[in-house]
Specification:
The structure holds two protein chains of two kinds.
Chain A: E1 2-6, E2 9-12, E3 17-20, E4 22-26, E5 29-34, E6 43-46, E7 52-55, E8 57-62, H1 75-84, E9 87-92, H2 103-116, E10 120-123, E11 125-126, H3 139-145, E12 150-151, H4 160-171, E13 177-179, H5 184-187, E14 192-193, H6 196-201, E15 205-206, H7 208-225, E16 229-231, H8 237-248, E17 253-257, H9 259-263, H10 288-300, E18 305-306, H11 315-318, H12 335-344, H13 351-366, E19 381-391, E20 410-420, E21 423-427
Helix pairs in contact in A: 1-2, 2-3, 4-7, 7-8
Chain B: H1 10-20, H2 35-52, E1 66-71, H3 77-88, E2 92-97, H4 100-105, H5 109-118, E3 123-128, H6 133-140, E4 144-150, H7 156-170, E5 177-181, H8 188-199, E6 203-207, E7 223-225, H9 228-232, E8 237-240, H10 256-263, H11 267-270, E9 278-280, H12 293-296, H13 303-322, H14 326-330
Parallel strand pairs in B: 1-2, 1-3, 3-4, 5-6, 5-8, 6-7, 8-9
The chains are: A alpha/beta, B alpha/beta.
């Protein structure tokens, strides 16, 4: 079957394209991108001016919670949230129950993803068995089962020695090691960023230096081993400094930042709702200087990717005292509006750079298909409505969990449609022009 | 607010409330109080103190009101003080002491609050080890919530009784040099006192080892130093904060002995202060750690007055938060 997406601004940095084009999809692949492609034999979807056609967005850091914590999220609900949020693929973290440290768990996740048949799912395996930080997991087996990277996310790789071994060993398969960077001895049982807000609210604080120590450790060991090291959910300005220096020195280091870290600061802990547990995440919302550093890193190219750290938690788990609440917020359905509003409309970056952050670079770092509209590439396409005003409503999220601090926010820019492997899996009902698309 | 509506004297209630009620549902912290509200509590506490000096120490202000003292942390002084205050105002009081262990067993704070709320108390006095626990309760409950200490956040009635005690001695708060010495990092008493004293125009100095000074303390409008002599010099008020013995394990300082040598309040250190300095401590004290016994028991110490004033100040807070029913009290 052929489908022609006719008109619309196509932004495909990998192909050097930014302009009005047609995109021809044949079955599950991109067949051609060009001006005034022949219509013959294809079902035509007119893309109105103002909408933007991009290679599908890839969220390289989500928690799908299955197996084991299906009350928070499942592969099916998480991937439904993904396509509604404009993501055609997600990479899911191994801190499930049991931990994804063996091929059986990986296969289970992939079978659930195949059943759901929504966004593509790329499992990420554990660095260590049970993510306990002692013995290496069966990394070759994980790789063979379909894992695209390894991490002990939720916590840092326990020791420098284990991280070194993981980098060396993973290097054999050409997969990156992703680290949740922090120095646990410096952070203790902290629940917020160490600064004025934590002091005023009486919350135990973790300094940005704790994260940067972890980043620096990974960079030095990446340099030592020559393997690829990726910094998960970077939030501190000191970490960005380390990454910049590492890149300048030619170290194979990449990094991602979450939308909440380039949008919010720790002031959100005090207002509008004091001690709102939906402002509690790890790494924490930091001070303005850190948030501004993340914005500058996005603008100047030192940050490689935007990833949500989508961390669903049940209402009951969050409806507790601040220091007892679990860390994390959902992000799949808020990332694109936040990115368009805070980065593109704020004048910080253009759409091509946004597509790099959300599609090209995640595909490159994880070495997965996508990130391009080149002929032969999978027909994974995200269509944006950059000028549409979107109102975030927690209750309306497709994710099983509604833990977001952005409830009620109005943002400029949203998702119009999401196409995975040529199948149109999401069309925003509010975008009139695409009403008949499905 | 649970005040009865539609009584015959409704037309004048507004005026009376403006003068004699806190126009808020809860007392969660000092941070959100205005200077007028603080002054109102302190003035009202003077009248309440007089009640405590009568042969029959009871007024009917909170007759028919139910006050629950919900304490998730052990406390003798604060719980007793609240209970006496409530009884002197004729409230029906109920004490619930919840060990942390039973929380671990199951029920959440939100559920505990909802269950209590179902029995329609008028006020809940909450002590809890988590900062912000009172805010959580306040969002769930119709009852007025009074913060009796939440984690490292605030302990507003302690700061109010401290201010009341200072005012009794110095007749003012504005312009006084107040030095607060001890574990600043973990102290809710510190935070409430900083908010109150800076709002009322005192010159607040805070002092402790750098390991126990919170980040960005300057933004609170205080002078921070680790030089105890500088903090004490010319002070009108010296307030000492408890040093918890387990802080040594967190490597905040090497030993209690060393802490006392560097920061402990001794007769010798006191000589740098004003001749009429007063010494305060929110209790419980560690004699020989943050304060020498001869200072705690000496002529400058007002530590037991603080305890006595705690009852009057808590009566004032309960009474003002009950709001709107004050004309019954006057009867």
């Amino acid at each position: 079957m052929k489908r022609l997406l006719k008109g619309g601004r196509v932004v495909d940095p990998a192909g050097g394209i930014d302009g009005v084009r047609d995109v021809l999809v044949e079955d599950d692949r991109i067949a051609a991108v060009g001006r005034d492609l022949p219509v013959a034999g294809a079902r035509v979807v007119e893309i109105p001016a103002g909408l933007v056609v991009c290679p599908g967005f890839i969220d390289m850091h989500v928690h799908l919670r299955e197996p084991g914590q299906e009350h928070k999220e499942t592969v099916a609900t998480g991937t439904a949230a993904a396509v509604a949020g404009g993501f055609t693929a997600v990479a899911c973290m191994p801190n499930t129950s049991p931990v994804n440290d063996n091929a059986n768990v990986t296969a289970y996740i992939l079978s659930r993803a195949a059943e759901a048949s929504l966004a593509r799912v790329y499992p990420i395996g554990a660095v260590s068995r049970g993510s306990k930080g002692e013995l290496l997991a069966d990394i070759a087996e994980l790789r063979q089962a379909g894992c695209v990277a390894i991490t002990d996310d939720g916590r840092p790789v326990a020791t420098a020695l284990l991280l070194r071994r993981a980098l060396e060993y993973a290097g054999m398969f050409g997969i990156p090691v992703i680290d949740h960077c922090e120095d646990p001895s410096l952070e203790g049982d902290a629940v917020a960023h160490e600064g004025y807000q934590a002091a005023a609210l009486g919350l135990r604080g973790m300094p940005g230096a704790g994260e940067a120590l972890g980043v620096e450790r990974g960079i030095l060991l990446s340099e030592l081993t020559g393997s690829d090291f990726h910094v998960a959910h970077m939030s501190a300005r000191a970490s960005l400094r380390s990454v910049r220096r590492g890149k300048e020195a030619g170290v194979h280091v990449t990094c991602e930042v979450a939308p909440h870290h380039f949008t919010l600061t720790d002031e959100a802990l005090a207002s509008p709702v004091p001690y709102d547990t939906n402002t509690k995440m790890n790494p924490p919302l930091r001070e303005a200087a850190d948030r501004d550093a993340m914005l500058s890193g996005i603008a100047d190219g030192s940050i490689d990717a935007i990833a949500t750290d989508h961390a669903p938690h049940h209402y009951d788990e969050k409806n507790v005292e601040f220091d007892r609440a679990p860390f994390g917020i959902v992000g799949l359905e808020t990332a694109v509006p936040l990115s368009l509003d805070r980065l593109v409309h704020a004048g910080l970056i253009g759409l091509p750079r946004l597509v790099e952050l959300l599609s090209v670079n995640p595909a490159r770092i994880l070495r997965v298909p996508g990130g391009t509209l080149a002929p032969g590439a999978p027909a994974d396409i995200t269509i944006l409505a950059p000028d549409r005003t979107v109102r975030i409503e927690a209750a309306a999220l497709r994710s099983r969990s509604k833990n977001t601090p952005f409830d009620g926010w109005e943002l400029r820019g949203g998702v119009a449609a999401t196409i995975v492997g040529g199948r149109i899996l999401y069309v925003n009902a509010a975008v009139e022009a695409l009403k008949d698309m499905r | 607010m649970s005040a009865p509506a539609g009584t015959q004297d409704e037309p004048r209630t507004d005026r009376i409330q403006a003068a004699t009620a806190l126009r808020r549902k809860d007392l969660l912290g000092i941070a959100e109080l205005t200077t007028e509200e603080i002054a109102l509590v302190l003035d009202t506490a003077e009248a309440m103190k007089e009640v405590g000096e009568r042969p029959i120490k009871k007024v009917p202000a909170l007759r028919g009101k139910t006050v629950v003292n919900l304490f998730f942390e052990p406390s003798t002084r604060t719980r007793t003080s609240f209970e006496i205050a409530e009884k002197r105002l004729s409230a029906d009081t109920l004490n619930i002491a919840v060990g942390t262990s039973s929380v671990v067993k199951g029920e959440t704070l939100a559920d505990t609050a909802l269950n209590l709320e179902a029995m329609r108390p008028d006020m809940i006095v909450l002590r809890h080890s988590s900062s912000g626990a009172c805010h959580l309760l306040s969002r769930i409950c119709r009852s007025a919530i009074i913060n009796a200490g939440d984690g490292m956040h605030e302990h507003p009635t302690q700061a109010l009784l401290d201010a009341f005690t200072i005012r009794e001695h110095k007749k003012r708060l504005a312009g006084l040099k107040v030095a607060i010495v001890g574990d600043l990092q973990h102290s809710r008493v510190l935070r409430s006192n900083i908010h109150l004293l800076t709002k009322m125009g005192s010159d607040v100095w805070v002092c402790g080892p750098p390991t126990l000074i919170p980040a960005d303390i300057g933004r609170f409008g205080v002078r921070a130093t680790s030089a105890v002599d500088d903090a004490v010099t010319g002070a009108d008020v010296i307030m000492l904060l408890r040093i918890q013995l387990e802080r040594m394990e967190g490597a905040y300082f090497p030993s209690l002995r060393e802490y006392f040598n560097v920061f402990g309040m001794t007769e010798a250190r006191l000589r740098r202060a004003k001749p009429d300095v007063i010494i305060m401590h929110p209790g419980p004290m560690n004699r020989g750690v943050e304060i020498a016994s001869e200072v705690a028991d000496g002529p400058y110490s007002v530590i037991l007055e603080q305890v006595a004033n705690g009852v009057a100040v808590r009566m004032a807070v309960l009474y003002l938060l009950a709001g709107g029913t004050e004309h019954e009290a006057a009867a």
